Amino acid sequence: MSEKKDYDKAAKIIFGENHIFADVFNYIIYGGENIIKADDLSSLPTESIQMKEGKIDARYRDLLKCVMIKEDQKNYYVLFGIEHQSKDDFYMIERVMNYNARYLLSQAEKAKKGELLKPILTLVIYTGERKWTSPRTLYETLDIPKDLLPYLMMYEPDRELLLLDLRHMEDNEIEKLRKPLSLIVYLMKYQENKAKMSKVINENEAALGTLNGPCLEALGVFTNSNINDYINDEGEAINMRSLTDTIKEIGIDEGLAKGRLEGRAEGRNEGSSEAYYQAVKGAMKNFDISAEKAMDALNIPLSNREAILKKLEC
Known about the structure:
The chain is of the alpha/beta class. The protein contains 14 helices and 7 strands. The protein has 2 domains: 4-168, no CATH class; 240-313, no CATH class. The protein has helices spanning 4-15, 18-30, 92-110, 149-155, 171-174, 181-189, 194-203, 205-209, 213-223, 240-249, 252-266, 270-287, 291-297, 302-313, and strands at 41-43, 47-52, 55-60, 63-71, 74-85, 120-126, 163-165.
């Protein structure tokens, strides 16, 4: 498993892309309708500085962008923030409230009297392997006397954490996302299911091709896979269709089927091993990659790899 800092860095790379950032909030606010445009987003500094007991108190958030929203022939400017979490945080709602308050205060300190401030909305994107179980509301983290509750609700209303648990989204919800975001979420969700991952990749080759090299590398961190093997030396995505075509051209589908039948009939696996060998050999030749990368890209079982390497040396 990668360290937390790797997940955070990867999240900033992926969701820092304007078109992906916009699609996330289009899903959250507009149910997937393409209202927020990538071209209407501009990145803002993620550092907020305040003086605390005579010392500088600097806080950093993951991503912050300003979006222009047109309504009633007027342009509104709203701040959208993303905080990434790979682990549960019991007090996440308090952290988000602090982030938002600091940015509102920083605006107020610079604003003219009576000037309206830009609202801020912060979304927590959670990519942990287990479902989020920490509190999603402020009141769940407070020890409130029953007699005080009605007054607290009146003057200090509860707040809900805006959270997206990516790995545990239902497929019908993922389909509301635009590509390539839906592809990214599918690959995160099914990272342990190699067959499903391969199917998703093959069905979404065009969307995968729209991701740049850094995004593919970052996606590889979340999926714990070798997606970055599909990046060439220039940092561009290798066309996935060409890989699929090559596999078909070298007869991997027919070879595997025949090999399994032969192995089942004769009680051995030489047939499938030969098909794997031919697949690896063809991928190495057509893509000029190492045997190890070819075997990773083709999901060759570990039990077959040593025999393939020995055969390639002959």
